[in-house]
Design brief:
The chain is of the alpha+beta class. It contains two helices and six strands. Strands 1-2-4-5-6-3 form a six-stranded antiparallel sheet, covered by helices on one side. One of its GO terms (biological process) is lipid A biosynthetic process.
Length: about 160
């Protein structure tokens, strides 16, 4: 009998799928995922984050663009898990678009950003996702994201070529 597939990932496993490293690796743990469907992951936001030195010294707030990046990294994980492959050093994932981004609440030190990403579609190498990140059950940011995967040798070419 086959053992059930693990539906969580720790940071060591995440680093096998994402090329990002400190300070830009923004996913700490995958709580659950279902291939071809969705993933839930977390980013523990600490006062030691580099971006808090300048954003803002008297009222630390996680930059919105980094919340979007955290959701995009979560989406990339879902895509790799769905395809059943780990990227090699020649693999690159690029943003193609961000639609309907809305920021609903600030995120600061001590918060745990919980990201839920669903695949809306995958056609001709372009993935579209619905992403929502929340803190304590309150939506912090939501957006639709589009990404594509390329080999580094093809990365200089426009998407769809």
């Amino acid at each position: 009998m086959n053992a059930p597939e693990t539906k969580t990932l720790d940071i060591v496993q995440i680093k096998q799928y994402l090329p990002h490293r400190y300070p830009l690796l923004l996913v700490d743990r995958v709580l659950d995922w279902e291939a071809g469907k969705s993933i839930t992951a977390i980013k523990n936001v600490t006062v030691n984050e580099e971006f808090f030195n300048g954003h803002f010294p008297n009222k630390p707030v996680m930059p919105g663009v980094l919340m979007i990046e955290a959701m995009a990294q979560t989406a990339a994980l879902l895509s790799f898990l769905t395809m059943g492959l780990k990227p090699d050093e020649n693999s690159v994932v690029y943003f193609l678009g961000i639609d309907g981004a809305r920021f609903k609440r600030p995120v600061g030190p001590g918060d745990q950003l919980k990201m839920h990403v669903e695949i809306l579609r995958n056609a001709r190498g372009i993935w579209k996702y619905k992403a929502v990140a929340s803190v304590d059950g309150q939506v912090a940011v939501e957006a639709e994201l589009m990404c594509t995967m390329r080999s580094a040798t093809d990365a200089s070419q426009p998407a769809g070529q």
